[in-house]
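Q: what sequence does this backbone want?
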């Protein structure tokens, strides 16, 4: 390498280079400056100073450019030591163990929950099956010959022939109690005019009870056929050629279908047995002029309408106890608050 020329001293102007190509010899002082670093020549570039960069940090992430001549592999991080790799592998195993434990716990919880649901469904299904079995068993036993009718008992009859009623219902013998035909029973009892209403009562295992409410006769109505016994609704109960003993004779204008007869029926149903036994005749031309005739004395009871019949009956019973019919010709109870006795 060629040594560059020395710098001119301060205040001295360097002269032009010789055209002959000879160099100017330096002075002694100039030789002392040879120890100083040589200045770069006009054709040479100054040497680049490489920065200190950690090998584990890529150049791009450090915001620096890779110097010329630096190998590309310098940007790659240095491999970790064996101890660091072992720590990373242990951490992965712990993560996988925790995940497996979590999945195992979830599967156990699902099995426990579904098992509880399954047991609950089994309990409900067992209860429902028990109820269904009980119902089927009961129905099967009830509709089987084990509960068939073997005896029919008639209750509530006074004037009705009990044996005749039992005979009319004999076709129900052998029928299971729940299957007793009520329409057939009704058809059999319609043949008995004295039956006003009835009810059936099954008494297991083999008894059928028929409770009958008889019609209450109130008197005799004279017809072409004779004397017909009727109740308060005008239903004919029986007919005889001569008047039946102990039955009052009813004389009602308009017959048994009139409003006057309805009023008579209400009055007769309200009388107590002590007064009813003494009535021998009843007459009415309108619903408001019902009149009773008592016993052999032929005492008259002016009843009026059927309103307040219960109060009139109680008042009449008290007056008759104080003044018997043999001493009185007329009891006027048409106004129960002002009774007239003549």
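A:
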């Amino acid at each position: 390498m060629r040594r560059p020329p020395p710098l001119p001293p301060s205040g001295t102007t360097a002269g032009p280079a010789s055209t002959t190509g000879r160099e100017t010899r330096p002075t002694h002082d100039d030789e002392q400056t040879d120890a100083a670093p040589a200045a770069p020549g006009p054709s040479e570039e100054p040497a680049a100073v490489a920065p200190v960069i950690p090998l584990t940090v890529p150049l791009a992430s450090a915001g620096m450019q890779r110097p010329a001549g630096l190998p590309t592999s310098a940007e790659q991080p240095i491999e970790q030591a064996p101890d660091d790799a072992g720590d990373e592998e242990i951490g992965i195993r712990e993560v996988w163990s925790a995940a497996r434990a979590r999945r195992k716990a979830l599967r156990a919880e699902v099995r426990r929950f579904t098992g509880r649901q399954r047991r609950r469904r089994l309990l409900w299904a067992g209860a429902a099956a028990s109820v269904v079995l009980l119902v089927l068993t009961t129905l099967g036993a009830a509709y089987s010959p084990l509960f068939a009718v073997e005896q029919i008992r008639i209750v509530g009859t006074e004037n009705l022939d009990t044996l005749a009623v039992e005979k009319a219902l004999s076709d129900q013998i052998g029928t299971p109690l729940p299957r007793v035909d009520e329409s057939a029973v009704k058809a059999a009892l319609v043949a008995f005019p004295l039956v006003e209403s009835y009810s059936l009562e099954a008494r297991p295992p083999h008894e059928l009870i028929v409770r009958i409410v008889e019609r209450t006769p109130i008197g005799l109505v004279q017809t072409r056929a004779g004397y017909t016994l009727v109740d308060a609704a005008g239903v004919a109960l029986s007919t005889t050629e001569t008047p039946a003993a102990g039955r009052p004779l009813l004389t009602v204008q308009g017959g048994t279908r009139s409003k006057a007869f309805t009023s008579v029926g209400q009055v007769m149903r309200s009388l107590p047995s002590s007064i009813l036994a003494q009535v021998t005749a009843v007459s009415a031309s309108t619903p408001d002029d019902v009149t009773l005739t008592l016993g052999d004395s032929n005492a008259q009871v002016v009843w009026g309408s059927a309103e307040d019949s219960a109060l009139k009956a109680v008042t009449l019973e008290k007056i008759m106890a104080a003044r018997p019919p043999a001493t009185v010709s007329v009891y006027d109870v048409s106004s129960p608050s002002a009774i007239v006795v003549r």
